[in-house]
């Protein structure tokens, strides 16, 4: 069996589908595509059409998918926010809308506000479906691009020590990253969040079964030396009933140049899924270890190119 | 005269433009394109740009046109709902907006809420214009794709016996289908609708001149055996002043598995232009005769590819 | 130094960047592209992606840019009005949004409602940025396409006598045209506007330094014979506190067939950036000298193609 057969024609709905071999295949493909000349890439998906169905606002995920398809020589059929402007208005079910799209397209990328929609959609669709985020569910391609960024830097994705800061309760990317790192041995994640936004007990229990080591810490003081990566996320104001509590806590979790100088290692990657709204000071942007505005974002495109290529490329 | 000259550089505004020869040309071209390898299709419209101007919500017609152009190697310039987001806001006339678009594009596909707009637009435009639906006027490409689906199955489009159910008064597709079938000899359509939504006397009179046989029936009991196709449409709630009357009638016109088992022939195509909002039970979807979610929708793309190819392809 | 090196990898933010040599290069490139066969053009930008970020409604500039990229074989990633539908909603800064886009794209075209935004964006971006209009600031590509239209007709862009009518105070295109004509010797512009919408004293002073001759006139009577071009713009109702005054003045500045017959020269180009809302009568449209709906609009695409080609084309 060729490696590409792991993916050809398959859906990407959750990180639960992945094992060591398939994650490594995605990373190897992304790395290869990143080095391939522009014009050669155009020969990978000529004549393929990917439907981008975004039922929720998104610029980052939408545009990196759009660019990824086009850089491979494919084309897109695009919807943004059709909940208010399309057949959905006329009362069509998501299943019917999906069946319609798949008549025209070779694959579908969908973002939807309701958890579980993508699983349902993948069941009815005959073409491959890629989950671009469903509510507070999963966002598997974001986790893959983040962990690819770590892998690309350190050349391994086991024996990693990482720090995740912010909203661990609701952050779908955080959940997907924990799953991804659980696939590989000897990984440790330090978790720092307001107590209202700690990882749920259920998620903690599940992680134990997976054998990833999760260590909750309470302050910047406890951040260990030499993390491979720091992963900052937004502390979501709307989750707090006590706004003063929010304002107080928020200040405790702002990433500053001072903190980087004090606690980050020489090679620590400083990451964030973006958009940010104040929790990472712009003074950090030019630190060579900060990759959120550059490599991490760009890898979003390359990892998606890897997935499209693995799922859709004809191999004679 | 080569057949392609019937279409090259021409508008598609109404089925009134079509005769036996031109409909057969569209069908033959669609059938041929359907069998052509993906990469070969890309050589048909390289460098051609089609403007998709949709002044009314649409996902189905919009995306099948977008995919059709791109599968032929062409490109699109796309607007959705620009009535609220564009130059139209600044008070520009539809004629000026069209003249602008044609400077950038090789053809224009337009949907507009007002009947007759497409005729007006085609008059001012120097590039070919395709009507993608103007209010309750016509929707010629929908009728062509529906009748192509019948032709593809039975290999003829004369001596056809069809059933149309639902809103015959306002359904623009229904009007276009009647015109299309009138072009060929010995066709019979059985019409079933609430009495408020019967075909208008004017339309019935006109059909008589065209020599298509229209037979109005009053209930499912009267559906004849061995129809070539059943064509279901939405009964539009908004047309009824008496909502109880609507609810009662609606129930009489729901397509169920039971009805299919009882009244459909072995080869009867079960069709619907979609979206549906309850008038076709999902239990019918997996019946092999049901083509609304599959072949019929897919043929929408192929018939549009046929038209773009006939209208735009350079032939040296 | 090859001429193309003037532009390769550069931003286009203001006409202040241009000199005689660079304007002539744009015009020569646009003229050459206009004569190049469609399929050959596709070889200029294959594999290049241009991000179109329009934070303000636009159909004309948006679609001419979209078509320009695609006619050169490139692809676009497109946003329209993301101020209400995207990461911007989540509170992201324009700098972060730009940094994100440039990870996926080879260049960015942006329209933004706030003056000066494009300059700021170009400073943070590592890919070339093209200003597609920032508030009442500049709209350099519009001025270039307009002056290319004059150049194409008369084969020179010095010794030109032009007339500009309408809102000279707020019209960003007018300001850019004055700058463009100032680059070449012996140009004269006659300016006609309601006194509330006269060119500001600051702009008049600046023009003096630039050595373009500006002559304010007060009525149609004073329009000189044999202008090379007439450039009409919209008198903006919203600038007037006295609406009666507006209505009165507006009537004084409507371009009619009668005025063309009386005052235009045999070769005078009749121009308008569009959209128009009544200030140019449709009776003028078919006059062979009227180019606003045809050549002028089409040149918008060709000048943008020229700029994309100069900025982005790989030259081995």
Automatic annotation (TrEMBL), chains A, B, C:
SUPFAM superfamilies registered for this protein in UniProt: Aspartate/ornithine carbamoyltransferase
Domain annotation Aspartate/ornithine carbamoyltransferase Asp/Orn-binding: ranges: 159-310
PROSITE patterns: CARBAMOYLTRANSFERASE
Catalytic activity reported: carbamoyl phosphate + L-aspartate = N-carbamoyl-L-aspartate + phosphate + H(+)
Keywords: Pyrimidine biosynthesis, Transferase
EC assignment: 2.1.3.2
GO biological process: 'de novo' pyrimidine nucleobase biosynthetic process; 'de novo' UMP biosynthetic process; amino acid metabolic process
Annotated ranges, domain Aspartate/ornithine carbamoyltransferase carbamoyl-P binding: 10-151
Pathway it works in: Pyrimidine metabolism; UMP biosynthesis via de novo pathway; (S)-dihydroorotate from bicarbonate: step 2/3
Family that this chain belongs to: Belongs to the aspartate/ornithine carbamoyltransferase superfamily. ATCase family.
Function in brief: Catalyzes the condensation of carbamoyl phosphate and aspartate to form carbamoyl aspartate and inorganic phosphate, the committed step in the de novo pyrimidine nucleotide biosynthesis pathway.
Name of the protein: Aspartate carbamoyltransferase
């Amino acid at each position: 069996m060729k490696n590409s057969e792991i993916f050809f024609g398959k859906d990407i709905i959750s990180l639960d589908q992945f094992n060591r071999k398939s994650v490594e295949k995605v990373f190897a493909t992304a790395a290869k595509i990143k080095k391939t000349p522009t014009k050669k890439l155009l020969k990978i998906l000529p004549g393929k059409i990917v439907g981008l169905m975004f039922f929720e606002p998104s610029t980052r995920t939408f545009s990196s998918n759009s660019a990824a398809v086009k850089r491979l020589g494919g084309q897109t059929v695009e919807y943004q926010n059709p909940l208010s402007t399309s057949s959905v208005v006329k009362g069509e079910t998501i299943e019917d809308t999906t069946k319609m799209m798949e008549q025209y397209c070779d694959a579908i990328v969908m973002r939807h506000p309701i958890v579980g929609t993508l699983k349902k959609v993948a069941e009815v669709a005959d073409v491959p479906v890629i989950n671009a985020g469903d509510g507070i569910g999963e966002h598997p391609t974001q986790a893959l691009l983040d962990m690819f960024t770590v892998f690309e830097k350190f050349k391994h994705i086991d024996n990693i020590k990482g720090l995740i800061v912010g909203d661990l309760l609701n952050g779908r990317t955080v959940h997907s990253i924990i799953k991804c790192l659980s696939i590989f041995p000897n990984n440790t994640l330090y978790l720092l969040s307001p107590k209202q936004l700690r990882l749920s007990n259920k998620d903690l229990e599940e992680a134990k079964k997976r054998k990833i080591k999760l260590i909750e810490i309470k302050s910047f003081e406890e951040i260990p030396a030499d993390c491979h990566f720091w992963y900052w996320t937004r502390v979501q104001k709307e989750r707090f009933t006590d706004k003063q509590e929010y304002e107080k806590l928020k200040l405790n979790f702002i990433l500053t140049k001072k903190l980087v100088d004090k606690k980050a290692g020489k090679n620590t990657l400083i990451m964030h899924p973006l958009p940010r709204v104040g929790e990472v000071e712009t003074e950090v942007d030019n630190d060579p270890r900060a990759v959120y505005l550059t490599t991490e974002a760009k890898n979003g495109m390359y990892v998606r190119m890897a997935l499209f290529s693995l799922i859709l490329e004809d191999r004679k």
